[in-house]
Please model this.
Amino acid sequence: MENTEAKKRIFSGVQPSGNLTIGNYLGAIKNWTTLQDDYECLYCVVDQHAITVRQTPADLRRRTYEIMAIYIACGLDPVKNIMYVQSHVPAHVQLSWVLNCYTMFGELSRMTQFKDKSAKNADNINAGLFTYPTLMASDILLYQTDLVPVGEDQRQHIELTRDIANRFNSVYGETFRVPEPYITKGAKIYSLAEPAKKMSKSDENVNAYVSILDKKDDIIRKFKRAVTDSDTCVCRAEGKDGINNLMTIYSCFTGKSDEEIEREFAGKGYGDFKAAVGEVCAESLDPIRSEFDRLMKDKAYLEGIFKENSEKASYLARKTLSKVYRKVGFVQI
Ligand code: TRP
Model:
């Protein structure tokens, strides 16, 4: 199926299940701001995905507003892009029921995120956690999406989405556009405490990540405590996961190359380098934080965005959903 617009369509989602980190910012959101002119973009706050693990209702509600405010504060334009909340567009769950019937138990059992999350939440391996990928497939397929910018960890879910789309299309004829993963150039940022692990917004150790909204003192302190190695050279090398990660972060915020950074810190210790990374990070995040604070005081504005954009999204989503309903044999009234 062709999109009516000439521009390719992009869909991505973030769960309101933790504080967005500089990993989310440098690895994703910062790059999304460069896509908004060339693509038709939908950025969704996937609150329905978030409840597959237990959430405190007040936190979930607050974070949903926060993510929208962060998106805007980071430079995503809520008029150019369709930025909205998943639970405001019922077509996501409506399509996901249908897609559940075209997704195999075996396929879902092989999802590594399911295996990881069920190991971590052994007392709550619920059906939603298991069928999470079909809801994600619905998010994507509802909008006839061309490209899905995600991290490497989501590639398997995109592959499954493609399999589901192809399966449905081969039974009922062209219904869904088959999307491609779009693994962005954005940097991969690792944990400050365990630099072999990806920085995660749901890490139990708050010193492992820097939130986009952290205060300057906290940012400086977290970088000061960042795990490095027993060497003393600020240079990128195998086995220096901690320093490599700090170099990536410093480079993202300053635009400096590895060589420039190595020259800048030649003969200086890790302490100086960590302090510099902390400074530049705090300085770069400061305008985002103040814009965020301003937006969070204006709930009515954010609610206006929720409403307008969920209407735009619903309009697009309903087109696909009614086509699917017709094809599977549901009576239209
Ligand atoms: N599963 C994604 C994550 O955990 C979030 C997500 C939900 C998503 N639906 C999506 C990402 C659709 C891209 C497209 O990060």
Remarks:
- The mean pLDDT is 95.
- The beta strands are 9-14, 40-45, 82-85, 147-149, 180-182.
